[in-house]
Write a structure and sequence with these properties.
- There is one protein chain.
- The chain has one domain: 3-Layer(aba) Sandwich (Rossmann fold).
- It is globular.
- The protein starts with a strand and ends in a 7-residue tail after the last strand.
- It is α/β, with parallel strands linked by helices.
- The protein is about 30% helix and about 25% strand.
- Helix 6 runs parallel beside helix 8 (about 160-175).
- The strands form three sheets. A nine-stranded mixed beta sheet has the order 7-6-8-9-5-10-11-12-13, with helices on both faces. A two-stranded antiparallel sheet has the order 1-2. Strands 3-4 form a two-stranded antiparallel ribbon.
- It is built from eight helices and 13 strands.
């Protein structure tokens, strides 16, 4: 199947052999080598499931491979965000060095608050400003990876579901034109299957949650355009050296 031509949700063509390795233990195996280059993937889950850490590790591991990446946070300033990830992922000892080398770019809430706040002229205007800023940053550091945490904050300022969907579609198209492979976090139910229909406008959907009553954290790849991915449920742990995913239990 490798080398076959597929079409992503942005309308672009890609080959299945062009994979972006996440570097997250177990995930690339589940994805048969990695995320198809240029895909825009939503990481859906409840608070505390590790979505932000998952997205950050993707950017961090890419930076270590020499692939510049941007982490864009709506809910934490840069200083607070870095303190959080350093306290949790203590094995990632070279974060500051990667930032200094401009392989890892962190854009915190202070970079976005002028665009996403109540009282803006319009949600569309605010979103356009944010996208323009993203494009500029991508070009400045020649980023090939992007993580956005979380678009659920944009939804809070968008009362019209149709407008929200159109804004998301515009964002995905623009990210595709910038040739970046992105992970975008979003809030969903606590259980691993608690995802929303709107998530399927993305090229990929990875859900993170827990097994009710057990406390075990589980994830599943619900969709990945252009990838022959595993369909089972996998357990995962958050460790000082990153997220560790076990072999999924194949669904019957």
């Amino acid at each position: 199947m490798f080398g076959a031509v597929v079409t992503t949700s942005t309308g672009k063509l890609a080959t299945m052999s062009n994979r972006v390795k996440t570097g997250i233990a177990g995930i690339d195996t589940m994805l048969d080598g990695g995320i198809p280059q240029g895909n825009q993937v939503v990481i859906a889950g409840a608070p505390g499931t590790g979505k932000t850490l998952f997205a950050f590790e993707y950017i961090y591991k890419g930076a270590k491979l020499g692939e510049p990446g941007i982490f864009f946070s709506f809910n934490q300033d840069t200083e607070s965000f870095l303190r959080t990830v350093k306290d949790t992922l203590t094995g990632f000892t070279d974060i500051d060095l990667l930032i200094e080398d401009k392989k890892l770019v962190i854009l915190g809430y202070e970079e976005t608050k002028t665009f996403i706040q109540k009282g803006s002229e319009s949600t569309n205007y605010a979103f356009t400003g944010m996208i323009s800023q993203l494009q500029s940053r991508i070009e400045d550091c020649q980023a090939t990876r992007m993580a956005i945490d979380s678009l659920s904050y944009i939804k809070m300022y968008t009362k019209d579901p149709f407008e929200y969907r159109n804004l998301l579609t515009s964002l995905l198209i623009i990210l595709g034109r910038q040739h970046v492979t992105s992970l975008i976090t979003a809030e969903a139910g606590q259980e691993a299957d608690g995802i929303h229909q709107e998530f399927f406008i993305y090229d990929g959907v990875i859900s993170m949650g827990s097994v009710h009553g057990s406390g075990n954290r589980v994830l599943s790849i619900r969709k990945m355009r252009g990838a022959n991915h595993a369909h089972g449920i996998a357990q995962y742990r958050i460790t000082p050296n990153g997220i560790n995913v076990t072999t999924p239990q194949t669904q019957q």
